[in-house]
Structure formats: C-alpha cells, structure tokens
Amino acid sequence: MNTFHSARTSTSDYVVIGSGINSLVAAAELARAGASVTLLEERDRLGGFIDSGELTEPGFIHDTFSSWHPLFMAGAAYAELGQELHRHGLRYLNTEDAGTPWVCGSVGTDAKGRVATVLAQRDPVATAHAFEYAADREAYAVMLHEFGAQAPVIFGAMGSEMNLPNVAKLGFKALRMGFTKLQGLLRQGLMSGRNLTRSRFVGDEVDQLWAPWLLHAGLGPDQVSGGVMLPVMAASMHQFGLPIVAGGARGFVAAFESLLRENSVTIHTGVRADSILTRDGRAAAVITASGTFEASRGILASVSVPQIYDELLAGPEIPHRIRTLAGHYQPGRAAMQIHVALDAPVPWSDERLAQTPLIHLSTGSNSTAIACAQAESGLLPANPTIVIGQQCVLDPSRAPAGKATLWLQLQELPFEPVGDAAHELDTSGGWNEKLVAAYVQRVLSQIEHYAPGLRELVLGIKAISPRELSEVNRNAVGGDPYGGSAELFQNLLWRPLPQLGKGRSPVKGLWHIGAATHPGPGLGGGSGHLTAQQLIHRSKSPLRQKSST
C-alpha cells in the first residue's frame, strides 16, 4: 500500500476518508461506475473493525473485532458487490457447511436457580417445535409472518436515505399495508423487545433467545424500537444464518482491497485526515500532513460525529446551531473483546451448545436489562450478557487440530467505570491491566458454570478493553463500536443529527457515512452503498458502469 512521505497535491473525483465497511463499499461502487477514487486510512491497514490474526497463540486465528456477516449478505451492498468479492477470493462458511443444526442459542440461570437453554435452527418451524407451549409455537409463526408483510416498510426505512422525498414514499408504502396493519407496525415500533415478547408469548423461550440480540443493534431489551428489531434479528438468523469468512475476517478486507485495486482506486494507509478544505461553501479537499487530496466531485468521510464537526470542519462553515446539535450526540454503551485460545473445544454440559456457532449467556430481557442498567449507571455488570462466538464450529481451520478459539464480546460496559455492581473489583484506576484481567476472569468463571473445566483449557488470552477499543479506532467514541446510541431519538430521521435526514451532508460536496449515520451500525455497508448510489445517479455526466468481467 502507498503512503505519502512528502507534501504534495493529488486530484481525483472522490476522496474517501476511512476504510471500514462503508468506505470500502462506497469506494468500490464509485470506482466500478467509472469514477477516480482515493481512499485515505490513518492506520497501517484497511478494514476498520474488520480484521483477524494470531492474537493469542501461534496457529489460533481470531476475528479481532466483528465476525458475523448476515447483515452484509442480506443487504444491497452485497447484492451489488458480492459476486465481484467472491471472484477476488471472499469465501463464507455457514451452518450448512458445518452440518450443524443450530445457528445460535442462549443459556442462563433464572432467579430461582433454574438453568434454561434455548436454541435456534435455520428452520423457524423446527425452532418453535422446542417451545413448551403450543400457543407460543403458533405465535412465533404469526410474528414472522407479520414481519414478512412489514419487511418492505422496515427495510425501506433502513435501505433508503431519510430525506423528505423518501420519507413521503415510505409513508405511501406504509399506507398500502392497510390501516390495521399500519397501526400495528407503528405500535410495535414504539415497543421494546420485552414489551413484544411479554405481550405475545406465554413462555420465555423467544425472549431468552432473541432479546440479547438487540445488543447487536445498539439497543437494550427495554428500549423503544426493539419491538421491530427483535423480529428483524430472528428473521435474519433464520434466513441467512451466521456466515463467517473462511480463514478469518482479514480475508474479507483482502477481497475488497483486490477489488479496489482492480478498479484503480488509489489507497493510502498511514495518512490521517486533519481537516477538510472548503471553497465557496463546498468541500474541496482533504488536508493531511502528507499532502492535499483534491476532490473534484466530493468527499466521503466515515468518521465519528465529534471528528467531523470538531476536527475536520472546525471553521465557520458549520453554523453554531448545527455545531451545538453535534455536541449533543450521545455514544452508546462501551464494549470489550476477549479472545481465548483453548487446548480443546469448550466442555459444555449441554452438548448441543458444542455445535452452536454463537451463544448468549443470558436469561433474556431480565438479565440483559439489569446488565444494561448497571453499565448505564457506570457500574461493571455483575452478570454481563456474554456473547460467545465459536468460529471453529464453522471453520475448524481457525485453530490447530483438536483445539479451539473463543470470541467473547461484552456490549454492556461503562467507558469510565465508577464501581462494580458485584462489589468485588477496584475500578478506581479505570480500565487498567489489573481491572481488565480481573473482569476477564469473571467472564470466564460465568461461562465455566455451564462448561465445567473451561479455565483449565486456556492456553492464551487477549483482551481489548473499552479504552483500547477507542484507541485502535477513533470512531469508537467512548468505547462504543456502534457509532453512537441507536435509540430512536438518535436513529432513522435523527441520525446523526436531528435534522430530518439532512445530517448526511453538513456542507456541499461532503457526505458523512459510517455507523454514526443512517442506517446505523452493523456490517451491512448501508450508508456507503446509499451514498455511492446517490452520487452515481446524480452525476451530471452519468458514469459508465464497468463490466464485471
């Protein structure tokens, strides 16, 4: 990859800042449409929160941050670029490749000390067959059927720019559902995940299985819009499973890099964008210590809200009112990654879990809501919801024969802890090495309750604390990898700013993309795709689509 070592000026149609999934998608689509594109990445590698490597012991390949790609496979960016990426070496592995019947599950101990395990299969009927109550089996089928009818509106909102014309089109699409169904969807959108499961199901299986998944959308089980997102998560798992990249997530980035280079994208790593130069009210160039990168058609910035308004656009081009709104942008809860090399697969008491790629340690809304509340109060959760990824179930090449990796994610942590809900750990030094190590042991101990002897198998551990997360990727403000709170007040029309969808372009010629912008977090590449397609379609001289051969 190229890095400038002396100040110079270069010009291209578009300059893209950052190289996370949205930047990669936008650069690829614009370049394939015939535009010249320059991509700037401040770190020494592409990919943002997509990477993998031997983080613990030789021969053990861990997905450093993100790992699972159902949102990408389900999205418009994959429909546009998937064939090309596979041609450049991308290969996915899923449940059907491993021959496992399970896609995900949850295990937890309720307040009465009862251990409950619930598992999902790709087949929703087979999943519901294990529910205790016949009424819940029927209600589950009804929930997914209703989601099918709602999907054009839900994905219409997530898959289009939130400006007035598109909102109007979305409104007409919603009206075609009929008043009764539309009213039901609106009411559901104002419900939390817990509201939905309590109102529809007698037993706890659906709540325990799917409420923890709301964390992956930046929500908790008691937050508005969870009533819509819970069926979205369930339907996505049933339809797309949990694909991972064969050999490690770095292969995804490698396929993108190869595609970009094939389409003449100029890539610079180790180059940090310091500011955006405006001329006559329009973004014209990116200023770096290495040189000036002129953009004749536009600049796309996959950065955080503070970075774009406090650093890149620090001049008078942003009105005081907008800058004030940007200052009110709220990060979500912090997260932590823990990677473990094991001398053997996890010794689950319930042997079915050994064949399950992803497991949540949770009883559902009850335990997850408590952990969220503790984190929001600045406390280390006593019983965090633990996301347990077993990539070796799908891809045995991730570890030497007979051994295994664990990918653990915690999504309910305070960035600056003020105490420990369990009254055991000293938080006065913040996320120092001692606290990180102690919290890792809490996590492993809680998993060991369902897998006796787990800690005896540990060969190596690599933990990435919330503070480290924010240091390796500046977009993770406050240790939040989801680009800011995804609650309704800061989502859809109001993401990234409450400007009725106008926050995408704070000045002419500049487009803000990434998790901080609509349609929000996740490995879908949605904002990059939306912006690229707008630019392609709006071009005065329509860009000629390159052949995919």
Features:
549 residues, disordered C terminus, 7-stranded mixed β-sheet, disordered N terminus, 20% strand, single chain, 20 strands, 19 helices, alpha/beta
Give an overview of the whole structure.
With about 550 residues, the protein is of the alpha/beta class. About 35% of the residues lie in helices and about 20% in strands. The chain contains 19 helices and 20 strands. The strands form 5 sheets. Strands 1, 2, 9, 10, 11, 12 and 20 form a 7-stranded mixed sheet that branches. Strands 7-6-14-16-17-13-19 form a 7-stranded mixed sheet. Helix 1 links the parallel strand 1 and strand 2. Helix 6 runs antiparallel to helix 7. The longest helix has 25 residues. The N terminus and C terminus are likely disordered.
Q: Secondary-structure map with pairings?
A:
Elements: E1 9-17, H1 21-32, E2 37-41, E3 52-53, E4 62-63, H2 70-74, H3 76-87, E5 92-93, H4 95-98, E6 102-109, E7 115-121, H5 124-129, H6 134-158, H7 164-175, H8 179-189, H9 193-200, H10 205-210, H11 226-240, E8 244-245, H12 250-262, E9 266-269, E10 273-279, E11 282-288, E12 291-302, H13 305-312, H14 320-327, E13 334-342, E14 358-361, H15 365-376, E15 379-380, E16 386-389, H16 391-394, E17 404-413, E18 419-420, H17 433-448, E19 458-464, H18 466-472, E20 510-513, H19 526-538
Parallel strand pairs: 1-2, 1-12, 2-9, 6-14, 12-20, 15-18
Antiparallel strand pairs: 3-4, 5-8, 6-7, 10-11, 11-12, 13-17, 13-19, 14-16, 16-17
